[in-house]
Design brief:
Helices cover 27% and strands 17% of the residues. The protein is α+β, with helices and mostly antiparallel strands and 436 residues long. Strand 6 and strand 7 form a beta hairpin. Helix 3 packs parallel to helix 9.
Length: 436
């Protein structure tokens, strides 16, 4: 059995976590039964989100793109909340991932097909003690939740690719690569991010009025005990025991090099990069946020990156699209997630990292989310075909053997240190859970 990092005891050797009604670790067999499963197959072939078509119009493309991203995000949120209007205030902190496909219209003219594939809302993270069974969602900020919903969508896409039905593979956004055993995004598809608020952290200082700009912009930040702090100011004992999460801004910066797919999906996919990000409630110059992202990780990193990794600078765009509600404060602790094919939204309490009572979707055991680490681990088992991956004992060990991805992530962390931006603190100990 692989030891956990830092010389700590393996959490599997600790007494079972009985919080939230959990009596211990569920086996993979138990999780596969209907009453205890994280449902990944739900709505696999159901294209049930709005689709917008945008014709290519040189000179106006960026303006149209910004408004299309805002419009499809707002329309999808409204559609999802029709049956649960009591959560409408959650839209005040919303992020979405949208894929665009280059297609031809009825007259044979090139155009872009927009489809929203993942949505997340929220503005909080858990302030509780660390949990070691993989069931807590630590960070419920909108961009982070949207990215986790995107991971769920990507696992669904892998199921489509491996399906024997040719129609399923045709619908999949991935294709085989001639240069690698990993799948790649089809050449006519791009991934875009929308957020109706600027991501917190180093970038946020450029999205605020000068009088509010009190941060040192080039430092890494983390959320700890309901505060956003430079990581250098945080006591190591807090990192070791309490939930602490790197800021969304810093995670965005990491994704420009490592991709959004994470370690587990790197076993199957080449790095997946964000092409553009639209920030919906700002009128700042489009280049400012992009500029600070480039400064956090300079081009000296490029020669060290193993292929197919690269540094993919995100095109940041702003549009003055304010989408706030009077109920925002009442729902400030709640977080909604959804991905394409899901029947219902799932609602979490961001301060605890678990599903709230009355959530339209209740898919996991013990009020655990379909986006928690344990759920992602179960999705991994549903798509993994290599026997050696299935034999690895823990979630942590599966992450570690994605060696090229881990090398790239370590290079990014080292450059943060070289630039005196602070250490990137990972929660490795909470990854040492098993399904058995």
């Amino acid at each position: 059995r692989r030891e956990c990092p830092g010389g700590h005891p393996d959490p599997e050797d600790l007494p079972p976590d009985t919080s939230n009604g959990n009596t211990g670790e569920d086996s993979l067999t138990q999780m596969a039964t209907p009453e205890h499963s994280y449902n990944l197959l739900e709505g696999l072939l159901r294209p049930d989100s709005p689709v917008f078509i945008l014709a290519f119009t040189p000179g106006w493309a960026m303006e149209w793109h910004k408004h299309q991203m805002a419009a499809i995000s707002s329309e999808t949120f409204d559609s999802l909340l029709k049956t649960s209007p009591e959560y409408s205030g959650c839209r005040s902190n919303m992020a979405t991932f949208v894929i665009t496909r280059k297609v031809l219209d009825a007259k044979g003219r090139p155009c872009e097909r927009y489809q929203l594939v993942a949505l997340g809302t929220g503005n909080s993270s858990s302030g509780e003690w660390l949990r070691f069974n993989g069931r807590m969602v630590h960070d419920c900020h909108a961009i982070v939740i949207a990215r986790r919903a995107l991971l769920r969508f990507l696992y669904k896409q892998l199921l489509l690719f491996f399906d024997a039905d040719p129609k399923a593979k045709e619908m999949c956004i991935f294709e085989s690569s001639a240069d690698s055993h990993q799948l790649q995004l089809k050449s006519n598809i791009r991934l875009h991010l929308y957020a109706n608020r600027c991501p917190e952290g180093a970038n946020e200082c450029l999205c605020s009025p000068p009088a509010m700009n009190t941060w040192t912009p080039m430092k890494l930040h983390c959320h700890a005990k309901s505060l956003l702090l430079p990581v250098a100011y945080l006591d190591p004992s807090i990192w070791a025991a309490r939930v602490c999460c790197m800021s969304a801004s810093d995670k965005l910066c990491l994704w420009t090099v490592a991709g959004v797919q994470g370690a587990l999906l790197s076993h199957f996919l080449q790095p997946l990069y964000i092409t553009s990000m639209v920030i919906g409630n700002q009128t700042n110059s489009d280049g400012e946020v992009c500029d600070i992202s480039k400064k956090q990780l300079d081009d000296s990193l490029l020669e060290l990156l193993p292929p197919p990794f690269k540094k993919q600078d995100i095109l940041f765009l702003h549009c003055n699209y304010v989408d706030l509600t009077d109920e925002a404060l009442r729902h400030s602790h709640l977080s909604i997630n959804w991905c394409l094919g899901d029947k219902d939204i799932e609602v979490l309490d961001g301060t605890t990292g678990f599903i709230v009572e009355g959530s339209p979707s209740l898919s996991g055991p013990g009020s655990s989310s379909r986006l928690c680490k344990r759920a992602l681990y179960s999705y991994f088992f549903q798509v993994a075909q290599q026997k050696y991956l299935l034999k690895l004992p823990t979630y942590y060990s599966v992450k570690v053997v994605a060696s090229v991805y881990q090398t790239v992530k370590d290079l990014v962390k080292q450059q943060f240190l070289n630039n005196h931006e602070g250490p990137w603190n990972s929660k490795n100990l909470v990854d040492c859970f098993s399904t058995g």
